[in-house]
Write the structure tokens for this entry.
Amino acid sequence: MDKPIVKNLGLQDYLYTYDMMHQFTQSRHQSTADEIWLVEHPAVYTQGKVGKAEHLLQQTTIPVIQTDRGGQITYHAPGQQIMYILLDLKRLKIGIRDTVTFLENSVIRTLADYQVLAATQANAPGVYVNGKKICSLGLHINHGCTLHGLALNVDLDLTPFNYINPCGYQGLQMTRLNDYVENINHNEVRQLLAQYFIAQLPLTP
């Protein structure tokens, strides 16, 4: 089985990317190569499919978009590295729990390269540094194929997280990589995330 195709899409409108993800998934067939999309979005709140309106604590000028991913409300903006994974799990013979673990591990290993110690928390998907959330996860499965992925805070302004209960957790504090590391190379972060994620997939040599 071949490695996923990695695409660096730069800064893209959220809804445009959302639509493209769904078009890709709906049109793929048994031999379609998996893809990983590395992207950033202009400022936007996204709400999970079971997201509760009360987790938006106050109205702002930032748009709120309903999605079909798992999880509650979160925030995206430039300076946050997003990695969308478009995988055929049936073909890879891996489950959703494995996929979530691979995503979390890719972040933990990337941060370790910057000497930042990160960890997961039981019953709270994502990655944390000293109890503060640095990466959010959300997936959707369609006919055994994944959409969405992870959002790693690199050097974005965290202020808009104050206007929501991030991922549905009241009082959850957020953090970002540049709280611990100076002069971050965004391209390096992108490459490490994709590299560490792909290294965990059960690909045939």
In short: The chain has a mean pLDDT of 96. The first strand starts at residue 5 and ends at 11.
